Amino acid sequence: MPRSVPLLSALWGHSAFRYLAVGGFCFVVDVGLLWLAHDLLGVPLTVATPLAFLASFAVTYTTQRLIAFASESKVVPSVARYTLLVVFNTLATTGIVWLMDTTGAGWLAGKVVAVVATTIWNYFAYRYWVFATPAPRSSDV
To answer: If we measure between CA atoms, which residue out of 67, 51, 63 comes closest to residue 26?
Structure first.
């Protein structure tokens, strides 16, 4: 058996690795939707960016919840927290993509910068806020 299998298994055991793997997949979905809307369908960038980002909402929430964090937290509160984070991320992503595009770097460079920024802060927000399993109440123990 190749030595890479135990290494991959050990890596997969860490939420940060799963988060990045799932996030990579979700990035492809998001950028693909942005490309489809803006480049193929001609939707203005300031409309296409948040549309693509929001359209990937269900894919990202579900895969991060089930695969990256294996969360057992209640769905409704985690969806509410995730929604608040998505609103913040949508505004931040739209602003970063627009700013990078207006400076001549292009929308794709802006999207990459936005993804790097949101990837860093989202890991901690997901782990400690969105998908955090609540501590048991004293009456539950």
So the answer is: 63
